[in-house]
Specification:
alpha/beta; about 45% helix; elongated; Macro_dom; O-acetyl-ADP-ribose deacetylase; Macro_dom-like
């Protein structure tokens, strides 16, 4: 773990292995295939000739040569024929066989393109769904960092109704919040969300005799984020591994949080754990507060998470697809 969707040129990914969406000959072609062959140099073509082609769904391995990766894993995706000719099963096999090769060769980081989503005509949203489901299943059993690489955000398409519903919710909540702030500022008043001036909010200090010593205050420190996280994992009857994998969190980061009660994670990490634990909105706000954060309607990413919690969408990878398409920071990592 985790699975990351990134916008990049796959030939520049500094990982152990990149996956090439190849054709049956393995001798190069257009799109990603051609770009990988050009970047790797003529030695890749010579190595591919020795492999004598590849059948749909299979995967074969070569060195990376001039690429910044150790290996190139070549796989041949299915040509889209309407979905009734075993395309989904063959596409899933591409990912499974490529990952098995990567694991067998000691790879810890692997970058995939969206296989078959180019010239082979597989609908992008469906191709992404197959990729995410297959990779997520692999990551439930094995530790690896996997990237799905798209060249431009416009080339990415999240499927399903969640994206449409979230964008509509953002329009309702985000616009209203910003209109209220703008309207109040135009009237010469501070926005409703702003704190009152210090003079109006001043609270009288307690009598000298009622003041607690520093030692007494420190003894009253509330439960911290790490403590709350571990308590919630126990309450939900989950193992640590189940929790951090569902949160799309790296095991090493989880161990830092677990072993250091004073560790302060980032906001997206806290939200990922809240989603993994299927916390309610009040519980999520409490967990954020433990780490020094809060949900805000001035943040589109916060609104996305709020909508998903309110409507029972607790799949971090699905939420991250929506966040990526909106060009927002994903959860986890």
């Amino acid at each position: 773990m985790p699975l990351k969707i990134v916008r990049n040129d796959i030939t520049r990914m500094e990982v152990d292995a990149i996956v090439n969406a190849a054709n049956h000959s393995l001798l190069g072609g257009g799109g990603v295939d051609g770009a990988i062959h050009r970047a790797a140099g003529p030695q890749l073509l010579e190595a591919c000739r020795a492999l004598h082609g590849c059948r749909t769904g299979e995967a074969k391995l070569t060195a990376g040569y001039r690429l910044p990766c150790r290996y190139v894993i070549h796989t041949v995706g299915p040509v889209w024929q309407g979905g009734g000719h075993g395309e989904r099963e063959m596409l899933s096999a591409c990912y499974r066989n490529a990952l098995a090769l990567a694991r067998g060769n000691g790879c810890e980081t692997v970058a995939f393109p969206l296989i078959s989503a180019g010239a082979f005509g597989y609908p992008r949203a469906q191709a992404l769904q197959v990729a995410v489901e297959t990779i997520a299943g692999f990551l439930l059993e094995y530790e690896m960092t996997i990237y799905i690489v798209v060249f431009t955000r416009e080339a990415f398409e999240a499927g399903g109704k969640l994206f449409e519903h979230v964008t509509a919710y953002i329009d309702d909540v985000y616009v209203d919040a910003h209109w209220d702030a703008t309207r109040e500022s135009l009237r010469g008043c501070p926005p409703l969300s702003c704190p009152a001036p210090a003079m109006e909010r001043a609270v009288p200090a307690p009598p000298t005799g009622a003041r607690a010593s520093l030692e007494e205050l420190l003894r009253q420190v509330d439960e911290g984020f790490s403590q709350m996280l571990l308590r919630k994992i126990d309450e939900k009857g989950m193992t640590d591994a189940e929790c951090y994998k569902r949160a799309n969190i790296d095991r090493r980061l989880f161990n830092k949080i677990k072993n250091n009660p004073d560790y302060r994670p980032g906001k997206q990490t806290v939200l990922a754990f809240a989603i993994a634990l299927e916390l309610s909105l009040p519980e999520t706000k409490e967990m954020l507060m433990k780490a020094g954060f809060a949900l805000s309607h001035s943040s589109k990413a916060d609104i996305v998470v709020e909508y998903c919690i309110l409507h029972g969408h607790y799949d971090v990878l699905e939420i991250n697809q929506v966040l990526f398409q909106l060009d927002l920071q994903p959860l986890g990592y």
